[in-house]
Design brief:
Layout (H helix, E strand, L loop, with lengths): L2 E3 L4 E2 L2 E2 L4 E9 L5 H9 L2 H5 L4 E10 L4 E8 L2 H8 L2 H10 L4 E2 L2 E5 L8
Antiparallel strand pairs: 1-5, 2-3, 4-6, 4-7, 4-8, 5-6
Length: 118
């Protein structure tokens, strides 16, 4: 998975307790447009990285023939996500692709983050 990871908050070997906003799911675009969509979506990685509330953002082609793209994001707060969504580049991405995609991405509030092997 091609992703941008940044700003993980740790104290020693323990992560600090916080509520994270998780964006996860799939979008479906026309199969012939999937690579263009992912390239344009990934162009927002530097914008997310400049946002101190971004922890992770990833757009990954799941099934090119079906036009399926997996979306995974983590934000430290709703305010950080709102800042990202209001940037001109992200607004333009949704304006361009919104009419051409089926969006099954959902937002989750996550508590009690821990290592899945623990």
């Amino acid at each position: 998975m091609d992703s941008l990871q940044s700003k993980t908050t740790t104290t020693g070997s323990e992560q600090t307790a916080r509520t994270a906003v998780i964006i996860a799911g799939r979008v479906f675009v026309p199969a012939g447009d999937v690579e263009t969509f992912v390239t344009e979506a990934r162009a927002t990685y530097p914008i997310a990285a400049a946002n101190p509330g971004n922890v992770l953002i990833s757009f990954c082609v799941e099934d090119a023939a079906a036009g399926t793209v997996t979306v995974l994001e983590q934000w430290t707060s709703q305010e950080a996500l709102d800042r990202h969504l209001s940037t001109p580049e992200v607004v333009a991405l949704f304006a361009k692709w919104g009419p051409h995609m089926r969006n099954e991405v959902r937002k989750f509030d996550a508590l009690n983050e821990r290592d899945p092997r623990a």
